[in-house]
Amino acid sequence: MIINGKEIALKIKDQLKNDVETIRENYSRMPKLVVILIGDNPASLTYVRNKERGCDYIGIESEIIKHDSSFSERQLLEEIEILNNDETVDGILVQLPLPKHISEEKVLNAIAFDKDVDGFHPHNVANLFLGQNSLVPCTPKGMLVLLEKINYDLDGKEVVVVGRSNIVGKPVALLCLQKNATVTIAHSKTKDLKKICSRADVLITAIGKPKFFNHEYIKDDAIVLDVGINRDENNKLCGDVDFEDVKDKVKAITPVPGGIGPMTITMLMQNTIEAFYKRNGG
Ligand SMILES: NC(=O)C1=CN([C@@H]2O[C@H](COP(=O)(O)OP(=O)(O)OC[C@H]3O[C@@H](n4cnc5c(N)ncnc54)[C@H](OP(=O)(O)O)[C@@H]3O)[C@@H](O)[C@H]2O)C=CC1
Ligand SMILES: Nc1nc(=O)c2c([nH]1)NC[C@@H]1CN(c3ccc(C(=O)N[C@@H](CCC(=O)O)C(=O)O)cc3)C=[N+]21
């Protein structure tokens, strides 16, 4: 089965649209997301545009602030401070990666944790670690929602996550652990990756290498969640998994595009609404 992330994301967006209508009737202002983009990385521009479209679709406010790559760290920190203090702003997202002269750590720490719709602030990271209520990173959250939508129960299942980044690998591993899966996190220093991946009931690939995982990495009837967004030899968008090579072997797989990506965007909308409620009572 091919998991149609785009369609599932659209259904959730329609539900969010209804929530937004209720907000319109009961509050004096609407949820607002601010996205800061520094530099002109074409992929980042696409994602940011998708985020703006998502906001328009469900009816929340969005503002994209663009700066060229010479924008300084100090200027960025000052801008974040102003947004932190702006009562009309519910969500702040600084698009990653940042230019080398700006410290990612300083920037992520500067965002008010209750407006941190990416869930990257240490406060939210700690809450996720402890299993307490927090703003959860969008891509990992989207993957868990997808599994829920296809009625897949992680309890007692073997999950292998390949990739250990703070934005995907580590948080998705924690979320699967919370759902009682047995979780392995693999990375570039892992020995015998094929063997480890081959025992996964659920394989999550987040390494950023086009078509790296072929059928030899995948157990029959596994679920494959492909997070990678890459360009293949023909400059076509593709995942970390060789989709054509594995699709007949798996129980279910997310395609690229149209799999995890649209869910990420939708979870960002959901987090913005969640942040709005948390800050306004409700
Ligand atoms: N669909 C979506 O919504 C999103 C997609 N992405 C995409 O997901 C991919 C991963 O993103 P992100 O987590 O930020 O990536 P990072 O580059 O931060 O991390 C990559 C991870 O993969 C590991 N890795 C790299 N090569 C190998 C290998 N050959 N074998 C095993 N492990 C390897 C690295 O190991 P080590 O730690 O040892 O270096 C690292 O942990 C990218 O393609 C990105 O574009 C990202 C976010 C959202
Ligand atoms: N602060 C921050 N938060 C992020 O969440 C964040 C980030 N920085 N930096 C980059 C990664 C990557 N990411 C994606 C979002 C949407 C799609 C997406 O919409 N993908 C579509 C199509 C993409 C296309 O057409 O290029 C799809 O897969 O169908 C992909 C990737 C969010 N990230």
Overview of the molecule:
This protein is 42% helix and 15% strand. By secondary structure, it is α/β, with parallel strands linked by helices. The protein folds into two domains: 27-114, Rossmann fold (3-Layer(aba) Sandwich); 138-261, Rossmann fold (3-Layer(aba) Sandwich). It has a five-stranded parallel β-sheet. Strands 2-1-3 form a three-stranded parallel β-sheet, sandwiched between helices. α1 (5-26) runs parallel beside α10, α6 (138-149) packs across α7 (169-178) and α6 crosses α10. The N and C termini lie far apart (39 Å). The relative contact order is 0.16. NADPH dihydro-nicotinamide-adenine-dinucleotide phosphate (NDP) binds at residues 139, 162-165, 167-169, 186-190, 193, 206-209, 227-230, 260-261, 264.
Keywords:
Rossmann fold; THF_DH/CycHdrlase; binds 5,10-Methenyltetrahydrofolate; 42% helix; five-stranded parallel sheet; alpha/beta; binds NADPH dihydro-nicotinamide-adenine-dinucleotide phosphate
